[in-house]
């Protein structure tokens, strides 16, 4: 599906991040979409006892939707803005209000448009690391 | 979700099968908790998820492990339901057709075995996602361009095997498959095409067998488990030009199709041309309630207002040509002249040249994206969608005929009309997205009634669906009725010969093995 209509929210987010947006964009027009966000590579090894960092695991296992311009980010921007928070809070990595157990629960139980993640999508060991990373130790 | 056992299997029998599977793939890769069963359920199920509930999932990582799983399944009469990455959203996700089947999740088989920029192909395992392949091509800076579907979260092979479509010249994905490795229902291993010769050098380049060709037999199929396959990839073009045009009125789709099809057949346009209706643009701008806060379909007068407010046409034509700049310019002149006969508005031109950046949603430039799935949020609540997808001849007569009938039926069921036509050659895939809130039982019932009405109407007029949800696989199979369903009879004969215990994906696309023939017509939506 080629969606040329500009994603105003994603653009806001890119601008808010001050980083990844492409240069240009029509003056007065909607902001340009960010470029594709490369995910961290999966390291070889036993995924049931992962040695990867929470940051890299988040990027790879959650990055299809939760990086800049991703579907999950776009939807969360809307939700966060409705709560009076800045658009940058659409990126899970910018959030300071996530508890590790909550992250695990959303990944396994799903939430809104977010489908439940199987243990092949993300193993328990991987999810522990991701939850700790996003939960910032909470 | 509580455990549903496969037909005729005892709890003790199930436990024994699970134990054997654990021995084959490791205990951590056999998943049978209630939470696991939930994770493999159809998140968009039109009705209770338990209708298509898996008993669990097993995830092998090698072809040898797949063979071991198949042998165990035969021994214990454990039906398997094979998925590549299990992201068949709108058609059942990872859930099995027959409740109690064990999902055979190939997501761990994610190796890119070959990637050849000179001849433009790759050999990959089923767990390789569009993002994985895209990122590998980018990291190695290879001059290749992928064809990606609306949902880039899924598997490259899984999508092609289920007849998925994309929007580049390689958009009919099943046609790009070349040379497969397949585990049969007995656990035997075959390679199709020239790969049937053990050391063949052109296994993924020449599309035929010596003798009958079998590749397509394993697509939308329960006749084997594809464990790797060759996929052709387009050489990255020097440039690409996008020609955009908003088409004002719903009936204009007729002349649009009659303009595009000759250009496609004549080789001026190589891509699979995607023509979505306005709602395809609207779903990413917000939720339905932001534009229309009443239940029931958005009335025509409000649609007209919305199109004006958001400067949209009823349809969006986005044509992309690929290749050398001079050739693209010449093609653009032909295309513009063809459209000028019908509409004065000039086409917007957007050039891309090799090395230029792409954005996160450039699907026609082969960038995988999950953003189109945002439509899942359109109706709010527990948003879900289903696709009603008849194939029609690519002429105005057929396109208008199908569209007018389905539009009338969709309106009569008070559901928003969101159609697209993708011209893949002499045919168009007409995908109608039907969006509903799963938390509202009346919406679920309404969507089911609507879907049944659409299938019956299309079949009565000679149009068939190319793909469908689990709950309608039997119903669609029934519409292929020539000579007392001769094709189904033939396929089921082959099925029983290749998979005597019927353990591979029983019921897939309405093909039931003898062992589970009593399940036909059960667990319907």
Descriptive notes:
The complex is a heterodimer of chains A (138) and B (525). Chain A has helices spanning 8-17, 54-66, 71-82, 100-109, 124-135. By secondary structure, chain A is an all-alpha fold. The radius of gyration of chain A is 16 Å and the shape is globular. The N and C termini of chain A lie far apart (39 Å). Residues 1-29 of chain A have low confidence and may be disordered. Chain B is built from 14 helices and 20 strands. In chain B, strands 13, 16, 17, 18, 19 and 20 form a six-stranded antiparallel sheet that branches. In chain B, strands 5-6-10-8-9 form a five-stranded antiparallel sheet. In chain B, helix 1 packs antiparallel against helix 3 (63-76), helix 6 (253-265) crosses helix 11 and helix 11 (396-412) runs antiparallel to helix 12 (441-460). The radius of gyration of chain B is 23 Å and the shape is globular.
């Amino acid at each position: 599906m080629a969606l040329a209509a500009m994603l105003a929210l994603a653009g806001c987010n890119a601008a808010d991040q001050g980083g990844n947006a492409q240069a240009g964009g029509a003056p007065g027009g909607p902001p340009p979409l960010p470029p594709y966000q490369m995910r961290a590579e999966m390291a070889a090894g036993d995924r049931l006892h992962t040695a990867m960092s929470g940051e890299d695991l988040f990027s790879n296992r959650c990055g299809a939707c939760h990086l800049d311009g991703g579907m999950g980010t776009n939807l969360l921007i809307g939700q966060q803005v409705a709560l009076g928070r800045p658009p940058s809070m659409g990126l899970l990595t910018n959030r300071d209000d996530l508890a590790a157990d909550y992250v695990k629960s959303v990944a396994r139980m799903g939430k809104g448009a977010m489908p439940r993640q199987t243990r092949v999508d993300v193993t328990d060991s991987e999810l522990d690391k991701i939850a700790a990373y996003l939960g910032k130790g909470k | 979700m509580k455990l549903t056992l496969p037909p005729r299997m005892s709890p003790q029998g199930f436990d024994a099968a699970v134990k054997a599977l654990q021995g084959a793939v490791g205990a951590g890769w056999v998943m049978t908790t209630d939470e696991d069963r939930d994770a493999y359920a159809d998140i968009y199920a039109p009705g209770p998820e338990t209708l298509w509930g898996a008993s669990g999932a097993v995830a092998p990582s090698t072809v040898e492990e797949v063979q071991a799983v198949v042998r165990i399944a035969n021994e214990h009469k454990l039906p398997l339901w094979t998925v590549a990455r299990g992201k068949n959203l709108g058609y059942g996700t990872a859930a099995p057709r027959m409740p109690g089947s064990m999902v055979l999740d190939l997501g761990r088989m994610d190796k890119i075995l070959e990637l050849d920029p000179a001849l433009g192909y790759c050999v990959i395992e089923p767990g390789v996602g569009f993002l994985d392949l895209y990122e590998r091509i980018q990291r190695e800076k290879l001059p290749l361009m992928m064809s990606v579907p609306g949902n880039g979260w899924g598997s490259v092979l899984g999508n092609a095997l289920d007849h998925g479509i994309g929007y580049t010249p390689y958009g009919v994905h099943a046609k790009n498959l070349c040379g497969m490795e397949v585990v049969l229902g007995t656990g035997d291993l075959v390679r199709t095409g020239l790969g049937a010769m053990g050391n063949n050098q052109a296994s993924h380049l020449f599309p035929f067998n010596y003798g009958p060709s079998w590749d397509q037999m394993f697509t939308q199929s329960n006749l084997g488990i594809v464990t790797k396959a060759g996929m052709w990839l387009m050489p990255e073009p020097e440039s690409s030009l996008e020609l955009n045009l908003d088409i004002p009125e719903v009936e204009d789709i007729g002349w649009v199709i009659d303009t595009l099809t000759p250009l496609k057949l004549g080789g001026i346009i190589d891509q699979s041309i995607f023509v979505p209706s306005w709602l395809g643009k609207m779903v990413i701008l917000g939720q339905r309630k932001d534009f229309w806060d009443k239940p029931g379909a958005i009335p025509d007068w409000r649609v007209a207002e919305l199109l004006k407010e958001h400067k949209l046409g009823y349809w969006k034509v986005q044509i992309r040509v690929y290749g050398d700049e001079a050739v693209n310019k010449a093609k653009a002149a032909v295309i513009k002249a063809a459209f000028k006969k019908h509409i004065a508005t000039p086409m917007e031109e957007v050039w891309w040249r090799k090395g230029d950046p792409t954005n996160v949603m450039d699907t026609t430039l082969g960038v995988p994206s999950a953003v189109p799935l945002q439509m899942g949020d359109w109706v709010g609540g527990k948003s879900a969608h289903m696709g009603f997808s008849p194939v029609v001849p690519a002429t105005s007569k057929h396109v208008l005929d199908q569209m007018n009938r389905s539009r009338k039926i969709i309106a009569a069921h008070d559901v928003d009309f969101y159609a697209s036509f993708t011209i893949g050659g002499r045919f168009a895939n007409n995908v109608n997205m039907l969006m509903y809130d799963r938390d509202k039982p009346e919406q679920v019932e309404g969507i089911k009634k609507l879907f049944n009405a659409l299938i019956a109407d299309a079949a009565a007029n000679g149009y068939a669906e190319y793909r469908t949800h689990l709950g309608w696989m039997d119903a669609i199979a029934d519409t292929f009725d020539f000579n007392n369903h001769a094709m189904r009879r033939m396929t089921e004969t082959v099925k029983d010969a290749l998979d005597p215990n019927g353990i591979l994906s029983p019921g897939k696309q309405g093909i039931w093995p003898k062992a589970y023939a009593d399940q036909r017509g059960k667990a319907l939506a």
